[in-house]
């Protein structure tokens, strides 16, 4: 945990420097310039260049829905995301980002080409595909209803295609446990089993 805190302090200091140099910038172009600097100098240290994270601890942001990204930055700032990792990595940093910069960061990552999927166990992916497209009778509605037929996302509903499977499983668990405020999702996945989580995550990672 000490290493995490030290890393976060370093990243927060870097973010503060970038934001400070952009103080007073009002135009969309200026905000976009700041966002590019933040993305390349700060966000990339965890989320990878262009939002292509290689660590399952940190989600891939490339190609993510713009509206979703803005909503999550605001949720981190307000404390709406209560899982431990949100506090460890994001809370202190997002408090330094104003609304214009948040919107510009979201635009930047939404425009980045998403990475290719990574396939794993065929049986696991097949079961996950069935769950994603068909749901589970009388228990879970199809994920594709909101997230799109190829998990590309739609506005406030995030892109899930190509995301790290361990990250998806972890988020399903924190939502299920009400550590992450997501009333719609909680109602949908409240009865999802750990095995089903692994299945759908394997499928989504492969897209």
From TrEMBL:
InterPro entries: Cyt_c-like_dom, Cyt_c-like_dom_sf, Cytochrome_c4-like, Cytochrome_c_Oxidase_Subunit
Location in the cell: Periplasm
Superkingdom: Bacteria
Position of the signal peptide: 1-25
Domain Cytochrome c: residue ranges: 19-113, 123-207
Keyword terms: Electron transport, Heme, Iron, Metal-binding, Periplasm, Signal, Transport
TM helices/strands, residue ranges: none
Listed Pfam families: Cytochrom_C
Principal location: periplasm
Protein name: C-type cytochrome
Species this chain originates from: Dyella halodurans
